[in-house]
Amino acid sequence: MTSLRFVERLGDLVDGVEVILSDIWGVVHNGLEAFPAACKALHTYRQRGGIVILITNAPRPADSVQRQLRKLGVADETYDAIVSSGDLTRHFVADHPGKKIFWVGPERDSSIHRGLDAVLGPLEQADYIICTGLFDDETESAEDYRAMLLQARERKLPLVCANPDIVVERGDRLIYCAGAIAELYRELGGEVVFYGKPHRPIYERAMVLAAERRGRPTSLDRVLAIGDSVRTDLTGALGFGIDCLFVTRGIHSEEFEGIDQLDPASVKELFGHPPRALMRELRW
């Protein structure tokens, strides 16, 4: 294994790349504001003929994600399409009509069941749980849900996780996501169904949308993933068989502070299997 260096420009990596599958949170914005250089890089790549599909573990449908991006200043021209874990979770709900759902998550994620004839109810009556996040991610952690999860496990309720992320950036802080609750439930012996990265369905859907935009399928050796999470972005890309550009300004920023080059031992410790390249922040 060789050392791993930082690169400065996306433009140096995309010769022969026909499709980019880019993470959103931590790459394109930090939850409070867009990263102009990253938006410009993706837009420039599109202007040169490439396809950009944004893939996100947001527990909301793509149209809701798009509205958030617009509010943060991310122009529609930055990307061709969005695939969210929320979309895939909605498909699960639609495929289980009449089943009662116990929903765990903040009110802002209510679009997860919008227009689906979903039946919401208390835990005692539910057929399964949908978790889009914590009720109050400003003050809570997964441990606050242990008693509830133990009750759910006794009833053998499946938990559908609409966001496999453990944490995400909000400004300069890290907050817990649905994945933290889902992982605790799995540790307690509960059944968990994950939608989103690093699991294959979100990548498969992204490639379908890319093929629709290009008019033909794309070979995986001509696809580049971009992300800032080892657990979701890098692992998901490697599992799907595509290269990954790892952006270090996101949730792992403290681990990379002051580092210009990683030796083989550090690469193995941080990544296991290394990404194609490192970049501090996405720029053209």
Structural description of this entry:
One of its GO terms (cellular component) is cytoplasm. GO terms for molecular function: phosphatase activity. This is TIGR01459 family HAD-type hydrolase. It comes from Bradyrhizobium australiense. The protein has 284 residues and is of the alpha/beta class. It has two domains: 136 residues, Rossmann fold; 107 residues, HAD superfamily/HAD-like (Rossmann fold), CATH 3.40.50.1000. It contains nine helices and 15 strands. The strands form four sheets. A six-stranded parallel beta sheet has the order 4-3-2-12-13-15. The mean pLDDT is 90.
What keyword list fits this structure?
hydrolase; 2 domains; alpha/beta; Rossmann fold; HAD-SF_hydro_IIA_hyp3; HAD-like_sf; six-stranded parallel sheet; 284 residues; HAD_sf; five-stranded parallel sheet
Beta-strand content estimate: 15-25%
Overall pLDDT confidence: 90
Distance between the termini: 28 Å
Radius of gyration: 19 Å
The CATH level-2 architecture of the largest domain is identified as 3-Layer(aba) Sandwich
